[in-house]
């Protein structure tokens, strides 16, 4: 046992400081508080959440003095890129600070870490000694204000934020989800400049049409690493879920992503399917021998234990696989980075029953387990997805972009979308695609509220309904953040990532040389006139103007 271990809890910030000092004295290395997020800032965004004032911080990150951000000029001369760090996060009830992850290894010798008696001066072999600057600690204490200033974005979406000139510029979104508890928006920046390593994601799916959109969007984002796709019974039976998932990966040229077969039925043994597939994309043959032999629940446990505090789970299916993982290892729910759920409802508006959304209705017991035992939960309810639709004019552009991904979209979605269009619905919705969009860019969310949420298990007409205690009448601490409003314009911009050509596709067409595409965009898309931009769609003139020679951006080679 070390002095500080994962899952250790502290009732005050002073206790944390004492342990950190004890660790430094014992192990003979020095730490610095690289990041902090105060509870005062958290309360501004989550006024209903109650915190113990003694903990002072909602999040803390300590690093070795030889590691941390490269942007800290005061420490640049001594940087060794040491990976050692300890991350603390406030517990769900707001009363304690918990150690959520430890990266325990240094990349330098003992002589370099014996700085305890240097009077604040840090000596590094073969480098100039430097003293920590007062501006460093001041910057750390003002971390919240700094991050808000850096990450503020406009609600207006301009495609120039997505596609830049010259042609060699690339799209990037920094900070792919740093925890969604504070609703901090992410920035759109160019040239693939990322503040953090790639976001590790487990996608738990019952692949139907909108699940495929979520998968394609995650694959298209350069700062996302899909570590696993786990399959569960839901829209269709689990074997067809596996096949559909493989079809999507094949269409995207990403058959290297590991796919795991999971739950065949709910925790109580019930099975039900909802979606009827139509469209030629879902009839193509696939090689199921590539499916991993490990059960999905075991894979979830293994991956989360291998990367504690680093894995974001995006749950787009009934929550059976996650509940099974909890029953096999009761610690995994507290080791995740974040959990995003597309499911549940807040207005008692059902989809397969009068009062219940499909994913929760399919396995209410699993939903109850997950809401009760996982941390850092964000829920995108079904009714919210109903309210925010993608205009049909955007839909036509999205499904007719002329790239392989767009062709797959067209063949997979047109038949299923036709009834809604004929019936006069104002637009198209992709619930699971929306959920992935807010994982990638939190500014997609216009408003959200922390609440206590549970699931009705016994009602004759209400079984599977998500019950939200909006006014705190049950006296329970908040356990989930419920999304209430979305920015459709930003979702449209994100969805266009799905249909961009990859570097490999550009090279195969002879349109990419020395990292610079060599042709106008409409030439690549085999459309001499260029797609027509309808009125009322997001500002996409730079992307779709047939007279624009800026070309297609490079989506880094996969």
From TrEMBL:
Q: Which UniProt keywords apply?
A: Hydrolase
Gene Ontology molecular function terms on file: hydrolase activity, hydrolyzing N-glycosyl compounds
Residue spans crossing the bilayer: none
> Which residue range or ranges hold the Inosine/uridine-preferring nucleoside hydrolase domain?
201-491
Instruction: Name all ZSWIM3 N-terminal domain ranges.
Output: 5-108
Report biased composition (Acidic residues) as residue ranges: 140-149
SUPFAM superfamilies per record: Nucleoside hydrolase (SSF53590)
Q: Where is this region: Disordered?
A: 103-159
Ranges of Polar residues composition bias in the record: 128-137
Q: Which family does it belong to?
A: Belongs to the IUNH family.
Q: What is this protein called?
A: Pyrimidine-specific ribonucleoside hydrolase RihB
Provide the species name.
Answer: Elysia marginata
């Amino acid at each position: 046992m070390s002095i500080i271990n994962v899952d250790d809890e502290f009732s005050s910030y002073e206790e944390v400081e004492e342990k950190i000092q004890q660790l430094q004295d014992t192990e003979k290395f020095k730490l610095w508080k690289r990041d902090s997020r105060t509870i005062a800032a958290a309360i501004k965004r989550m006024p209903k959440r109650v915190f113990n004032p003694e903990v002072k911080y909602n999040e803390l990150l300590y690093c070795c003095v030889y590691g941390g951000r490269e942007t800290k000029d005061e420490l640049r001369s001594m940087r060794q890129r040491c990976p050692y760090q300890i991350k603390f996060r406030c517990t769900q009830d707001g009363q304690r600070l918990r150690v959520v992850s430890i990266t325990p290894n240094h990349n330098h010798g003992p002589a370099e870490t014996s700085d305890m008696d240097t009077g604040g001066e840090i000596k590094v072999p073969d480098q100039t000694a430097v003293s920590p600057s007062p501006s460093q600690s001041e910057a750390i204490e003002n971390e919240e204000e700094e991050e808000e200033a850096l990450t503020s974005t406009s609600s207006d979406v301009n495609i120039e934020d997505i596609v830049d000139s010259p042609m060699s510029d690339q799209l990037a979104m920094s900070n792919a989800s740093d925890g969604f508890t504070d609703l901090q928006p992410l920035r759109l920046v160019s040239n693939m400049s990322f503040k953090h390593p790639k976001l590790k994601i487990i996608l738990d799916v019952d692949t139907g049409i909108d699940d495929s959109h979520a998968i394609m969007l995650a694959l298209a984002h350069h700062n996302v690493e899909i570590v696993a796709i786990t399959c569960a019974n839901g829209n269709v039976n689990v074997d067809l879920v596996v096949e559909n998932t493989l079809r999507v990966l094949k269409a995207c040229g990403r058959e290297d992503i590991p796919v795991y077969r999971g739950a065949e039925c709910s925790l109580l043994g019930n099975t039900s399917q909802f979606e009827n597939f139509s469209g030629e994309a879902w009839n193509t043959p696939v090689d199921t021998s590539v499916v991993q032999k490990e059960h999905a629940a075991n894979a979830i446990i293994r991956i989360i234990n291998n990367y504690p505090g680093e894995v974001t789970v995006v749950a787009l299916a009934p929550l059976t696989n996650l509940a099974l993982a909890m029953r096999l290892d009761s610690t995994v729910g507290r080791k995740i980075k974040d959990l995003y759920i597309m499911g549940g409802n807040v207005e008692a508006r059902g989809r397969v029953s009068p009062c219940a959304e499909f994913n929760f209705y399919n396995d209410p017991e699993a939903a109850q387990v997950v809401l009760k035992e996982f941390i850092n939960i964000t829920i995108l309810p079904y009714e919210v997805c109903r309210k925010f639709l993608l205009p049909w004019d955007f839909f036509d552009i999205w499904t007719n972009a002329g790239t392989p991904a767009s062709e797959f979209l067209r063949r997979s979605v047109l038949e299923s979308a036709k009834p809604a269009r004929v019936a006069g619905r104002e637009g198209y919705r992709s619930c699971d695609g929306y959920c992935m969009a807010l994982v990638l860019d939190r500014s997609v969310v216009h408003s959200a509220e922390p609440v206590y949420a549970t699931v009705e298990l016994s009602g004759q007409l209400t079984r599977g309904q998500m019950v939200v205690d909006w006014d705190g009448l049950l006296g329970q601490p908040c356990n989930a953040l419920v999304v209430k409003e979305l920015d459709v314009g930003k979702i449209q911009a994100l969805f266009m990532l799905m249909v961009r050509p990859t570097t490999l596709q550009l090279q195969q067409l002879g349109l990419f040389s020395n990292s610079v595409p060599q042709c106008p965009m409409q030439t690549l898309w085999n459309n001499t006139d260029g797609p027509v931009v309808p009125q009322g769609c997001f500002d996409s003139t730079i992307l779709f103007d047939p007279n624009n020679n800026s070309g297609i951006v490079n989506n880094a080679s996969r």
